[in-house]
Amino acid sequence: MELNDWFNKGILPDDYIESMQTHRENLLHIYDNFQLPEDQAFFDALKKQNLRVIVLTEDWCGDAMLNIPILLRLSEAANINVRMLLRDQNLELMDQYLTNGKSRSIPIFIFLDAEGNEVAKWGPRAEKVQQFVDHSKEALPQEDAEDFKEKFNEMLFFITKSLRDNTDFWEDVYLSLKNELNK
């Protein structure tokens, strides 16, 4: 399938959010509280490109919980149409956008021009968020340790809360998206 076909297969963000079971409240918290910076020249430049974006995501993903509301705010300011595809139901596309050539990390944002050509790809994390996650993982015991699962779940809870509440991460995601779209 061509990227235009994948875009047309996707669902609207509101329908995706309504279907969410795991991170809907956290995603909506970020969406309701994130304010785009005064960046009208950037928004106007994006509008002129007539972009669309395919979002590969899953409800359980904390990174998607953080990144999607930032993208949605940007899409509103720049008139970018967004369509959501669930990763696990669209592996043919997902496998074209593996992180480090091997991992099905999400979310992945695939920006298309009016003809359906890819003009940018972003995801799954802003660099500063990646550093935070990497640092958080350093404290975990070895996978075969008796308390690994408990410590891993504690770490996930901590990371999720941090992504939800740390507005610096929100700004990092916005700046990372802006940087990618300005290339």
Query: Strand sequence of the main sheet, in spatial order?
Result: 2-1-3-4
Mean pLDDT, rounded to whole units? 96
Reported for the largest beta sheet, the result is:
4 strands, mixed
SSE pattern: HHHHEHEHEEHHH
Low-pLDDT ranges: none
InterPro entries: Thioredoxin-like_sf
Pfam families: Thioredoxin_9 (PF14595)
Organism: Virgibacillus halodenitrificans
Protein name: Thioredoxin family protein
What can you see in these coordinates?
- By secondary structure, the chain is of the alpha+beta class.
- 55% of the residues lie in helices and 12% in strands.
- The protein has a 4-stranded mixed sheet with strand order 2-1-3-4, sandwiched between helices.
- Strand 3 (108-112) and strand 4 (118-122) form a beta hairpin.
- It is globular, with a radius of gyration of 17 Å.
- The mean pLDDT is 96.
Question: What's this entry about, in short?
Answer:
The protein is an alpha+beta fold and 183 residues long. The protein has helices at 3-9, 13-19, 24-33, 40-49, 62-78, 91-94, 127-138, 148-165, 167-181, and strands at 52-57, 81-86, 108-112, 118-122.
Walk me through the topology.
Blueprint: H1 3-9, H2 13-19, H3 24-33, H4 40-49, E1 52-57, H5 62-78, E2 81-86, H6 91-94, E3 108-112, E4 118-122, H7 127-138, H8 148-165, H9 167-181
Parallel strand pairs: 1-2
Antiparallel strand pairs: 1-3, 3-4
Helix pairs in contact: 3-5, 5-8, 5-9, 7-8
Keywords:
alpha+beta; Thioredoxin family protein; 183 residues; Thioredoxin-like_sf; single chain; 55% helix
